[in-house]
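Suppose a colleague, Dr. K., hands you the sequence of a protein chain of 495 amino acids and asks what its three-dimensional shape might be. Before reaching for any lab equipment, you can write down a predicted structure in token form. Begin with the sequence itself:
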Amino acid sequence: MSDLAIRNRRGDTRTVSSAAVSRLGTAVQGTLFTRDTPGYDEARTIWNAMIDRRPALIVRCRATDDVLHTVLFARELDLLVSVRGGGHNIAGSALVDDGLVIDLSAMRDIHVDSIQRTARAEPGLTLGGFDRHTQEYGLATPLGINSTTGIAGLTLGGGYGWLSRAHGLTIDNLRAVQVVTAEGDLLSASERENSDLFWALRGGGGNFGIVTRFDYALHPVGPTVQAGLIIHPFDDAATLLRRYRDVMADAPESLSAWVVMRKAPPLPFLPTAVHGREVLVLAVCFSGPSTEAEEALRPLRAIGQPIADVVAPTPYVAFQSAFDPLLTPGARNYWKTHNFSTLHDELIDQLVAQVHQLPGPMCEIFLANLGGAVSRRSDDATAYTGRDAQFVMNVHGRWESPDEDERVVGWARAVHRATAPFASAGAYVNFMTADEQERVRAAYGTNYERLAAIKAKYDGDNFFRANQNIVPATQQPTPSYLVIDRTAETPPPSM
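The predicted structure, expressed as tokens, is then:
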């Protein structure tokens, strides 16, 4: 192995001797990848194909001790570091060019205590792996909607899914963590121990350390839920959205119904004539008693004349992966997000108009329906801000060719601008792209100053900065190593 040229936190390049890298390789159980190592390109590939970064060194950890050794190694040499969990983050924060990646993807153990209704999971676990284990006991916790998403990044950003109206955000079900700090200390954090750190980790992203163990509360769910799609023609979308808004205002918390507006994929239960045409989809999950499902769903089914209604008893794990075919890795993705406390009539009109401008068959606008248990906690209960939001919008640009970058990114930004006058406080940081560093303070609202103070306590020199960065209160703002597009309108050719 030859010496490595690795970027430090000031942005300069330093030489790290092959002997030092070899000592690290001997100290850890996991695998080291340099640019000359077989498997390097696979190791640096993540979900969003717009992210094309070339780290100098990737350490794929197998255990918490590996994380400790690697943090101390990077700290001693003042190296620029990023942390990879599932590699699903839209901004590509898992990777840094010419730096060191601490890769947690091989740490996938989980232990379920069915008596106490808890799960202890490592950070490389995906939602699919988590759900398969907990559903063996008919238990679950609110997570996302794509089984290949990693639990770590999803949780640290807040986390929500089909169960959130009934059971809150993912972080509302987090009971304790084990975390490696920027100084290389191993701490436990909970409401009783290092409670300030625990508060910040629940929504503050990867700013405060590397979580190597998550302890979650579980709830009786499934193994079968009433779930599926109700698909409407788009001709009367504005009226459907107004009726949907009114129905969900009175819906039981065990019912979630998200709106997806896109061109219809060639699903087998849709008429061929509908394929490729705009549709309004209600993605529905009722997790309450099966005897109550029909009554709970009746108002939703009465709001229009759908093309198809395939809501039926479904294994929870199957519905958790139902959208996987639309979210496979390898495509280019660019997102924009807003919170909405309600769907104003004018906002609905704007959304409908923007769907008519969809730039490609994989692009969509979806509205996640929250409220319920999410809104019953105050904004200062955790770092996550925006709990009054009843809907979270994701403008999802997705396409294949770099030649389409400007058109699709431009469309996503146009939707974001057009809907901004109706947005409520906060923003879901997991949906924020690499060019939104200036939005971080607003995303956390009144919680930002407290977060900055906790950042100064646990990471005063901003060791963990490859993220939607919260600057330590003791520092002036520093450039984010994720930002590659500093203009308002011109999309980057790649990330």
